[in-house]
Amino acid sequence: MFYEFNPLNNKWVKRIPSNLSLLNPRALAYFYMDDGSLQWNGVSTGMKLCTDNFELHEVQYLKSYLENSYNLWLGLPSYQDNKGVVRYRISISADSSHTFVKIIKPYFISCMLYKLPLKALSGDGSNQRNPSG
């Protein structure tokens, strides 16, 4: 879903597709199992999607799609890699982690459950997004 063939250099390149309708809950779970992680295990229920290899405009588009489609609070922190390139990751706030987990957990395989925050798994749903915010 996130690869496009570039015939100019005969390589596959990571790209966010313009049509994200295929990013249903199952695909989102697979994406998180592969490229997701906890932000601070045991300290916060925050989570992140490692979108480091996508262009900024692609990550912004994906972030907007996830916020609007799944009613999530997301951030877009940046960091500088060891080559000096600025990279971006989508952060899932602690306030949205319960909602996000409810969306993706039905599709998780058991050996990947360690990637989910325990507090979000046992929460009462009180950390869902505020519709007015």
What is the CATH architecture assignment?
Roll
Alpha-carbon Rg, integer? 15 Å
Shape: globular
In total, how many beta strands? 8
Helical content stands at: 25-40%
The neighbouring-strand order within the major sheet is: 3-4-8-5
Uncertain runs? 124-133
Largest sheet: 4 strands, antiparallel
Identify the CATH homologous superfamily. Answer: Homing endonucleases
The number of helices is 4
Question: Distance N terminus to C terminus?
Answer: 31 Å
Overall pLDDT score? 87
Number of domains: 1
- Content of β-strand: 15-25%
Structure, described:
The chain has 133 residues and is of the alpha+beta class. It has one domain: Homing endonucleases (Endonuclease I-creI). The protein is 32% helix and 19% strand. The protein is built from four helices and eight strands; from the N terminus they run E-E-H-E-E-H-E-E-E-E-H-H. The protein has helices at 25-35, 56-70, 94-104, 118-122, and strands spanning 3-6, 11-14, 36-38, 47-49, 74-75, 78-80, 86-88, 90-92. A hairpin with a 5-residue loop joins strand 6 (78-80) and strand 7.
